[in-house]
Structure formats: structure tokens, C-alpha cells
Write a structure and sequence with these properties.
This protein is 0% helix and 18% strand. With 113 residues, the chain is mainly β. The strands form 2 sheets. It has a 3-stranded antiparallel beta sheet, with no helix packed on it. The chain has a two-stranded antiparallel sheet with strand order 1-2.
Amino acid sequence: MRATQQDGSYPRPMLCREEWLSLDGTWDFAHDDAGKGLGARWFDPAVTEPFSQRIEVPFPPESPASGVGARGFHPVVWYRRTIAHDDLAGGEERRALVHFGAVDYRAQVWFDG
């Protein structure tokens, strides 16, 4: 977590927050063309097998800059990232506001607290 500065690093400088954490960077990634991830509990942190790829966020999977560069149609994709509780300073009573800036149509999000 870092304090907001007017140095251009905060993504929306007109709406600065006291503290923020960018989730850009390397995430686990998997295509789920068969739509089996939900039933196979890919959201469970113990399930690691389908996440054989890494993606650089904020780039989309189609972009070579993402490290994936998959140009075909994939109806469902999964992203996974671990964030330590210590990264969210302020103790257990602290709330977090998460923005997903490029969800194409619909997203399901799991938080393991």
C-alpha cells in the first residue's frame, strides 16, 4: 500500500485516495474454453493445475505485451493473484475497494479472507 502522490503514478489523479495498491503485474492465468473451471473449483487456492500460464496485467491476453498473446476467441478466462493481508494496511476492520477497469462483459470474483 502506498500513499497517493500527485506525481502521475495514481491512475485517476483527480480522485486521489489516501492509500492505494495497484494490482498491475504478474497474475496466474488460464483459458477455460470448455467452461469447466467453476465446477472444478478453480477458485480454490489449492487448485493449481489449470494455471499454467502467467499474464502481465493491465495488458489483455490478446496483446503480446501480456506474455500470453492468444489471438483466438476464448469465452472464459481466469486470472488469479495472491495479496498478503499485510499489503492492505490498516488492520482487519479496514475495507477495500477494488476496481476492475477492463472487464469485457461479466466477472465473478472470489476473495479468500
